[in-house]
UniProtKB/TrEMBL annotation:
Ranges that cross the membrane: 49-67, 73-97, 109-131, 174-191, 198-220, 240-261, 282-306, 326-351, 372-395, 401-423, 435-457, 463-482, 494-516, 522-540
Gene3D superfamilies for the chain: Amino acid/polyamine transporter I (1.20.1740.10)
Lineage: Eukaryota, Viridiplantae, Streptophyta, Embryophyta, Tracheophyta
Biological process, per Gene Ontology: amino acid transport
Principal place of residence: membrane
Region of interest: Disordered: 8-37
Subcellular location: Membrane
Transmembrane as UniProt keyword: yes
Family of the protein in this entry: Belongs to the amino acid-polyamine-organocation (APC) superfamily. Cationic amino acid transporter (CAT) (TC 2.A.3.3) family.
Segments forming domain Cationic amino acid transporter C-terminal: 495-545
Membrane topology of the entry: Multi-pass membrane protein
Protein name: Cationic amino acid transporter C-terminal domain-containing protein
InterPro entries registered for this protein in UniProt: AA/rel_permease1, CAT_C
Annotated GO CC locations: plasma membrane
Organism: Erythranthe guttata
Length: 570
């Protein structure tokens, strides 16, 4: 009843707020949350969040990116690449944590960006993030079939999939196993978040035991000389065969293995004592995964010289190419990778449904997606729709095509959240001038972009080193000047990012740097879906959005409860 009484007191004809202004009371959140009907049950604790975080991150990615990063970019120093990528992920996790503790609602980045920069940017970033979730989940599901074939010793193409030759290449291999896995997990997440947590815990524990097995066997069979000596003497040797730049290029590639912790923040509405459990859950999972990744990379480097590592299947390839007595380990790796895929897929599907649920609460998409089932306390409509959509794509789309389309939306959202946490700390609408903060964010992002372009396209030499050093000096000066000249407008009540504004500024820089490492198809996809998102927003969302109705610019529609409806519901 309190939710609806707050909605009743908040008249839709009040004066319009300025663009990008923030919601400063729980009343706004309560009104939006009321769109879902029954509330989501708060049943998760810090150990559940750590389990979801580990399950979401430790998936099939580490089994692919490790080999590519070591063979092509970093060599044995791929261990440091994982450490650098883990630091970047931890900084972004800090930004997510501050928002999640202050606003423990479902929706994650969409909710944070909406209350900071307004509805349009939130819809743009949220829509791209959901597309990334759907495509990556479809890719991971097809990867499950491939690793299952490895575990069973079967050919994926001939035994586990069937081909329709009348369809074009890349879209003609039907994968019914991937469809079945997605639909089964959809039923699980529709039934209960708590039961989903237990399933995730079981799968995650099994997967971690498998990872420990791989690490132990890798160090047992490995040789320390492989950290410095290549198999072919003509190839560069040493721990840094490709130099320091190779370590950072490797970090850009393996960073994709960390994507998944952001899904934890989307479950904030279902967490008990969020101010205590969320910081431990998000940051703890990133730290633990970083340690596991570094140990896995070290064991891989000990098994084989970097120039003998299989870029596609580094761990299973290391054992398969070894003595016959150890080839059974390759099958074990297939089983373990399958468990990892299931855990990451489960967490990602939980996250994508909660993103869609909160977007539906804002009325920028039909409010049908926002409904929470009264008996299960889960967003069943959003879960079922996205599950079926993901299964349809996974049925016929090739893995390589899907992998070329993912990641850019997620990195863009990480960049936006880091900007948002600075803006929220230093700007209080009606009391402070936002332009100094906006100017700082623009100048720092521009400096980071120039650094990234120089890193990618300038030939190596003293000139490149001088220009890169100049960019770093300018970036440090801009941050220091902003730190001394602009005071913080608010202090977090429970938990805040330390060393403000340095940590989110480093996060901004690293996300721009990693965005610069992506290929052209990623930007084409991002441009296409962004344009489609803008079209949907202009043609539909802006006319029915929660913000527009709340400002009184479009009148009261069905999306806003009338006093009569509110009283009847109370």
């Amino acid at each position: 009843p309190q939710i609806y009484l707050r909605a009743l007191s908040d008249t839709p004809n009040r004066p319009p707020r300025s663009a990008g202004s923030m919601y400063t009371s729980s009343e706004e959140t309560s009104r939006a949350r009321a769109r879902s009907g029954p509330t989501m049950k708060r049943s998760l604790r810090w150990h559940d969040l750590v389990g979801f975080g580990i399950g979401g991150m430790v998936g099939a990615g580490v089994f692919v990116t490790s080999g590519r990063a070591s063979r092509l970019y970093a060599g044995p120093a791929v261990v440091l690449s994982y450490a650098i990528a883990g630091l970047c992920a931890l900084l972004s996790a800090f930004c997510y944590t501050e928002f999640a503790v202050e606003m423990p609602v479902a929706g994650g980045a969409f909710s944070y960006i909406r209350v900071t920069f307004g509805e349009f940017l939130a819809f743009l970033t949220g829509a791209n993030l959901i597309i990334d979730y759907v495509l990556s989940n479809a890719a991971v599901a097809r990867g499950f079939t491939a690793y299952l074939g490895t575990a069973l010793g079967l050919s994926t193409r001939t035994h586990l999939r069937f081909t329709i030759r009348t369809l074009p290449d890349g879209y003609n291999e039907m994968d019914l196993i991937a469809v079945a896995v997605i639909l089964l997990l959809t039923l699980v997440i529709c039934y209960s978040t708590r039961e989903s947590s237990w399933l995730n815990m079981v799968l995650t524990v099994v997967h971690i035991l498998f990872i420990v097995f791989v690490i132990v066997v890798g160090f047992w069979r490995g040789e320390w000389k492989n950290f410095t000596e290549p198999a072919n003497p003509k190839n560069p040797g040493g721990f840094f065969p490709f130099g320091v730049s190779g370590v950072f290029n490797g970090a850009a590639m393996v960073y994709l293995s960390y994507i998944g912790y952001d899904a934890v923040s989307t479950m904030a509405e279902e967490v008990k004592d969020p101010e205590k459990n969320i910081p431990i859950g998000i940051s703890g999972s990133v730290v633990l995964v970083t340690v596991l990744y570094c140990l896995m990379a070290a064991s891989m480097s000990a098994l084989l010289p970097y120039d003998m590592i299989d870029p596609e299947a580094p761990f299973s390839g290391a054992f398969k190419n070894g003595s016959a007595g150890w080839r059974w380990v390759s099958n074990i790796i297939g089983v373990g990778a399958s468990f990892g895929i299931l855990t990451s897929l489960l967490v990602a599907m939980l996250g994508q449904a909660r993103y869609m649920c909160v977007i539906g609460r804002s009325c920028v998409v039909p409010t049908w997606f926002a409904k929470v089932n009264a008996s299960t306390s889960t967003p069943v409509n959003a879960s079922a729709f996205l599950g079926i959509f993901t299964a349809a794509i996974a049925l016929f789309t090739d893995l390589n095509i899907l992998l070329n389309l993912v990641s850019i939306g997620t990195l863009f959202v990480f960049y936006m959240v880091a900007n948002a946490v600075i803006y929220r700390r230093y700007v209080n609408h009606g009391a402070t001038n936002p332009w100094p903060t906006l100017s700082f964010l623009f100048c720092f992002s521009l400096t980071s972009l120039i650094f990234t372009l120089l890193w990618q396209f300038t030939p190596s030499g003293k000139t490149k080193a001088f220009m890169l050093g100049s960019c770093i000096i300018v970036a440090i000066f801009v941050v220091q000047l902003f730190h001394f000249m602009v005071p913080q407008a608010r202090k977090p009540e429970f938990w805040g990012v330390p060393l403000m504004p340095w940590i989110p500024s480093v996060s901004i820089f690293l996300n721009i740097f990693l965005l610069g490492s992506l290929d052209r198809p990623s930007y084409v996809r991002f441009g296409f879906f962004s344009g489609l998102t803008v079209l949907v927003y202009v043609m539909y969302s802006v006319h029915s959005s929660f913000d527009a109705e709340k400002n009184g610019s479009l009148g009261v529609k069905e999306c806003v409860d009338t006093p009569e409806n509110v009283i009847s519901k109370v």
